[in-house]
Amino acid sequence: MWFPVIIVSTCILALQEVTAAALASDPAVLLLQEYVQINTTSNNNLTPAVAFWKKLADAEGLPFNVVELNQGYPIVVIKWAGSNSSISSIMLNSHMDVVPAKQEDGWKFPPFSAHIENGVMYGRGTQDMKSVSIQYYEALRRLKANGVTLLRDVYMTLMPDEELGAEKGMIPFLQSEEFAKLNVGVELDEGTSYDIPSIPLFYQDKVVWQIEVTCHGVAAHGSTFPPNSATATGKCANVINRFLKFRDEEYAKYTKAGITDAGPYTSVNLNRINVRQNLVQRTFVDRVRWEMSTVCGNGKQCGEIYFCLSKCTSYFMMQSCIASSSLSRHHYLI
Signal peptide location in the record (predicted)? Predict the structure, then answer.
């Protein structure tokens, strides 16, 4: 999932030309390689990843804590104390989990090998977002090694289920006493990646809206020709076409936006469609993920999306528009 808030790193390699071989042997790169080699696919056992971070925290003498608000979903908290713990702290947030990856999906090298070739590391999590976690750690380690003491406490937090919606990690953590004790004043999080030799900084967010549309129609044998307008698949095709048309319109906005201006457009992606063989089924489900524009304060964006949905079919039940910046899911029947 993608929430561009602030991208920052203070551990950029020196701006001199270096060879790919030198980069591959850099201690920070080797740390990232080791971390990527830990398979933290969603719902996997995160114990090895937690042990990895405990080892790094212990090496720097940093207090290490695990908050487990839901069994099997550990939240790692590493603290670097500042000179004044009474004022608000800085939170460097990332997540341990990654989306599934298989060799047959088209990977040049095994997705958890972290193989390095010609200066490129291949592996799930290299961008989203294990590289950022290592950047956080390296920034703290290097500042500490140089004798720097910050005014504020700094907390590295690593979440267990961001890719699944954060329902057992960040969401309950924000409501917990453990989080309140951190006294967070500012939080740095993930953004997108750019193939440019610079780090863009921007302060924007997206509102995530995941919807599931269930279409109902007549059932029939796979050898027959019921009218498209009467079948669940025909109705869902209409829904999907409306989504894709809206997606094309938003993509046109995206191509004109600058790299630090993610607010004016909404990304729309169809994530899942259920299928069944040799049967015209009575129900058909598709799942769509929206990352909503947050710059239209007058509700214009919501109105456009409502129009897109309401034109899909004669029967459509809209529960609500986007009510808050928290993760929201809705189910619609057609």
Answer: 1-20
